Amino acid sequence: MLESALILLISLLLDQLMGEARRFHPLVGFGWCANKLELIMNKGTQLHFRGHIAVLLLIIPFILLGLYLQGLPVNKELNWEPVWLIEIVILYLAIGRKSLTQHAEAIIRPLNDSDLETARKKLSYIVSRDTAKLPQQGIIKATIESVIENSNDAIFAAIFWFLVAGIPGVICYRLVNTLDAMWGYKNKRYSQFGWAAAKLDDAMNWLPARLTVISFAFFGHFLRVLKTAFKQGASCNSPNAGPVMAAGACSLNIKLGGEAFYKGKLIAKPELGYGNSPEVYNIRQAITLVNKSLTLWLICIFILSIIIEAS
Fold first, then answer.
1. Region 173-199 average pLDDT
2. How do residues 217-238 score in pLDDT, each as one tens digit?
3. Is residue 131 within 8 Å of residue 142, measured between CB atoms?
């Protein structure tokens, strides 16, 4: 396990140095394939069944590839495993910590300059809600919610599945998460076809999301954060995003949630957290909370790895 911990650390350093791959990212090609397959299969009858088959067709070949890569033999002459380099690259591609920070920072700057038009435009890159008429308070809330919610998807869940199941695990998680982002909508087009992708994403995120909640609670009033996060999270549509956002809001002592427009329709979302209405500086506090939680994860992972190696 110590090797996995070192691979994780190197991948995070690579992410910090290089950020998200802007050209030839494998997920872009995967998304293209998913779009083409959806156009072929998302029509006619038995859309639930067709959605299941589409998910399997897209994911199984990559899981098999991951199993093959993980089984590459050790180079006995050099005394190293080629799979280590592959694991570093794949985990680097799966983690988006720096990208998450960069998107949030790009919104903070125009907010500080009272340039709401630019802030709305930058926000539209990372959220699905309507941003064209959002007031400053709405922009701040949406940014913090995005940072907190996406920290689980882009960082903690990817790390969890790498440690639990290696290359196949992190590949499967990232592809399922991508399909959920593409098909997991409760509208006429995707409510049936995207059901399998959405439910599989919920299942794979269930435990990582709760570990993320615990991590956030560690930096607030621990028991109060936990109690409030799971109570408020239960009223959200997402069984994972709700508790994570509530825990982050509670740890920052701010209130999130409330009404928001999606494709012109007003949606009343439950209030999350407690305390004050968020300000611009709370966006950086949310980034700091994510970074502190990641540091906590790394410390726990290395301590556990050393104990396992010593036993």
1. 94
2. 999 999 999 999 999 999 998 9
3. yes
Centre a 10 Å sphere on the Cβ of residue 92 and count the other Cβ atoms it contains. Answer: 20
| Amino acid (1-letter code) at residue 258 | G
115 Cβ neighbours under 8 A, 6+ residues apart: none
| pLDDT band at residue 77 using 50, 70 and 90 as cut-offs | low
Q: Is the pLDDT of residue 80 over 60?
A: no
For the stretch 257-280, what's the b/e string if a residue is b when 16 or more beta carbons lie within 10 angstroms of its beta carbon?
Answer: beebeeeeeeeebbebbeeeebeb
- State both tokens at 89: 């690259």
Domain parsing of the chain, residue ranges: 2-310
- Residues of the chain with pLDDT > 90, as a percent, come to 79
Q: How many other C-beta atoms lie within 10 A of the C-beta of residue 282?
A: 22
Q: Are 287 and 147 in contact (CB under 8 A)?
A: yes
Q: Give the integer Cα–Cα distance in Å for 159 and 298.
A: 10
DSSP one-letter string for the chain: -HHHHHHHHHHHHHHHHH-S--SS-HHHHHHHHHHHHHHHHSSSS-HHHHHHHHHHHHHHHHHHHHHHHHTPPPBTTTTB-HHHHHHHHHHHHH--HHHHHHHHHHHHHHHHTT-HHHHHHHHHTT-SS--TT--HHHHHHHHHHHHHHHHIIIIIHHHHHHHHHHHHHHHHHHHHHHHHHHH---STTTTTTTHHHHHHHHHHHHHHHHHHHHHHHHTS-HHHHHHHHHHHHTTSSSTTHHHHHHHHHHHHTBEEEEEEEETTEEEEEEEEE-SBPP-THHHHHHHHHHHHHHHHHHHHHHHHHHHHHH-
